[in-house]
Specification:
- The complex is a heterodimer of chains A (183) and B (262).
- Chain A is mostly helical and 183 residues long.
- Chain A has helices at 2-10, 14-36, 39-56, 66-88, 109-121, 124-135, 140-147, 151-182.
- The longest helix of chain A has 32 residues, at 151-182.
- Chain A is elongated and about 60 Å long.
- Chain B has 262 residues and is an alpha+beta fold.
- In chain B, strands 5-6-7-11-10-9-8 form a 7-stranded antiparallel sheet, with helices on both faces.
- In chain B, a hairpin with a 4-residue loop joins β6 (149-152) and β7 (157-165).
- Classes of the chains: A mainly alpha (183), B alpha+beta (262).
Chain lengths: 183, 262
């Protein structure tokens, strides 16, 4: 179905593109929310990405690659949106913190806070690699292609970003152990 | 000390948290934006094999020759079948205007069976169907979104369908849908009461056809059968009325062929 919608949208069919946007919009919102960690910014980035995708759709060669192509546009729009908002406004609406039941009880509230803080300290480029790897479950070669970066860069960013998250958990574990020792 | 595997499990769990869906207002904004945004058109192939480089050189030479003739104010004979000369390199330029495609899919009619809601409906030739990915919660009056089976037609036609348990009768469901439409679509459809509220008999099953003029034609056919309510909506963005003879004929032809689960 998606391929037919893409083909029709490439010919200027707005309804087909609407349907396409409905099919992929929520997943795009998930990606943008993860990368930007701000609901308003994420909405703006997805809107900009979809409009840009509409405009540039005739240049897409392989309709089956639509979503991968859109994700690359979306990632670039996330970077641009973040730069724009940083420049012009300090207003942000942070995403709500999800309750621990979402994570099957593996995460404590402390873990989540530590990971959230560590994740927010990462650059957008490092966040993107983590999101495409963990949220979309992409292997590194596909991830690198979708982000438009060399495989080596993708590997390096994933290693550094993962190390930062692990370090945040280690720091919290050490603090907890020390507190327990003095309790 | 925490084992590395535990850390990675916690990191994986962190990324498993759900994120918010894209709100309807953003879909609406995208719809408005693309209507105002011209698509790029690609002049020439995306990529040419090396073997045509010679041909490209010839084409470029012909262009130069044609320009030279024009400058010399000579008038070469151009036949009716002449087409614009392709540029030597792929170029992307804004199109002067883009209208919605009127070309339908080449595929013939097919039968759509709803994976979530269980009914079947023949899909007209040229239409594309897609199943709902979320089950309808029984409250809101959805547009063509994740809770609806979607049918995208040529021109500016779209249809979508929902189904769900309902304890009341048909009259109650009709009222429920009118209230839900006013509640959920007052921003784009300020008309609360439908202009059409018409009972129908289709294959021995009682239906009600509702129609609104929301700046576009919105027709919804509803029925209740065996404790399950069904709502099929047909939208024509090209018609600013609650009713249109062609749309009515097409919508009724789809409804007459629907088979509801027993």
């Amino acid at each position: 179905m998606q391929r037919e919608l893409v083909d029709r949208a490439k010919r200027g069919d707005e309804e087909a593109f609407d349907a396409l946007a409905r099919l992929v919009g929520d997943r795009c919102m998930g990606i943008a929310s993860w990368i930007l960690r701000d609901a308003d910014l994420a909405e703006d980035a997805v809107q900009a990405a979809l409009v840009r995708a509409w405009r540039e759709l005739p240049t897409l060669r392989d309709a089956d690659r639509f979503e991968a192509w859109l994700h690359r546009i979306l990632t670039n729009e996330c970077y641009a949106e973040s730069r724009r908002r940083t420049r012009w406004s300090a207003k942000i609406r942070l995403l709500p913190i999800h309750d621990s039941s979402d994570t099957g009880g593996i995460l404590t509230v402390n873990d989540r806070d530590q990971l959230e803080h560590a994740f927010r300290r990462l650059t957008l480029e490092h966040r993107s690699v983590l999101v495409f790897h963990h949220v979309l479950g992409l292997p590194l070669p596909e991830l690198a292609g979708r982000l438009g970066i060399p495989l080596g860069t993708a590997k390096s960013r994933l290693r550094l970003a993962t190390a930062a998250l692990r370090a945040s958990l280690d720091a919290d574990d050490r603090t907890t152990t020390t507190e327990e020792r003095f309790a | 000390m925490t084992a590395p595997r535990d850390r990675d499990a916690r990191i994986a769990a962190f990324f498993a948290a759900n994120q918010p869906d894209l709100p309807d207002r953003t879909f609406d904004a995208v719809h408005r934006d693309i209507h105002r945004t011209r698509q790029l058109i690609v002049v020439g192939p995306f990529r040419e094999p090396d073997s045509v480089l010679g041909g490209r050189f010839v084409a470029a030479a012909v262009v130069v020759l044609a320009v030279g003739i024009a400058l010399l104010n000579l008038r070469p004979v151009v036949g009716p079948g002449a087409v614009p000369m392709p540029t030597a390199t792929p170029t992307v330029v804004p199109s002067p205007s883009v209208s919605p495609s009127v070309a339908a899919s080449a595929s013939g009619p097919s039968v759509f069976t709803s994976p979530l809601y269980g009914y079947t409906v023949p899909v007209p030739a040229g239409w594309i169907s897609g199943p709902a990915t979320l089950r309808w919660d029984g409250t809101k009056q959805p547009g063509p979104d994740a809770e609806t089976d979607k049918f995208v037609g040529p021109e500016r036609l779209t249809a979508w369908a929902i189904a769900g348990p309902f304890s009341g009768d048909l009259a109650a469901f009709v009222e429920d849908r009118i209230v839900a439409t006013a509640r959920d679509h007052s921003d784009t459809c300020p008309v609360r009461e439908p202009s059409i509220n018409e009972p129908l008999q289709i294959g021995g099953q009682a239906w009600v056809l509702l129609g609104w003029n929301c700046g576009a034609l919105i027709n919804t056919a509803v029925t209740v059968r065996a404790g399950v309510a069904y709502a099929f909506t047909f939208r024509d963005l090209a018609v600013i009325a609650a009713s249109d003879p062609d749309d009515r004929a097409l919508f009724l032809s789809m409804l007459r062929s629907i088979e509801l689960p027993t």
